[in-house]
Amino acid sequence: MGNLITTKWLGDMRFESTNPSGHNLFIDAGEENGGKSEGYRPKALMLSGLAGCSGLDVASLIKKMKLKVDDFKIDIDANLTEEHPKYYDKVSMHFHFYGDDLSEKKLQRAVDLSVEKYCGVMEMFRQFAEVTIETHFHKY
User: Fold this and answer.
1) How far apart are CA 5 and CA 44, in angstroms?
2) Each residue of 40-58: pLDDT tens digit?
3) Which residues pair with 60 in a beta bridge?
4) Most exposed: 66, 73, 98, 103, by fewest CB within 10 Å?
5) DSSP 33
6) Mean pLDDT in the chain?
7) How far, in whole angstroms, is CA 23 from its chain's centroid?
8) What is the pLDDT of residue 2?
9) Which PANTHER family has this protein been placed in (predicted)?
10) Cβ proximity of 95 and 134 under 8 Å
């Protein structure tokens, strides 16, 4: 398989999880669930994984296409089901690009390539959630 992640219990509701990058991360529950909020929440981490995966694709394409972008961010809003096991059934991703010389058509192409072709995390999310994507351009 080749993707071993070890997640070790540190007592209470806290865990430390290894990562192939060598940067470990901490997972903890919120105070309402017996934790101390000293780490990431597992479900939210999935959304960060989705944004990070797609973000890396887009950053790579911005470089490859030599596009001028001052800044960009990805906002994700997700709906959690009411019943256990709770999962995200609707995920809305908003790509925001900032700059005074944005090539909107090419940036939209970069987002589309990530969303439709390259991002494996996106493909996983599509198995259980309705995913919508919006791209926003902000000129100075």
Assistant:
1) 18
2) 999 999 999 999 999 999 9
3) none
4) 66
5) G
6) 96
7) 17
8) 77
9) PROTEIN YHFA (PTHR34352:SF1)
10) yes
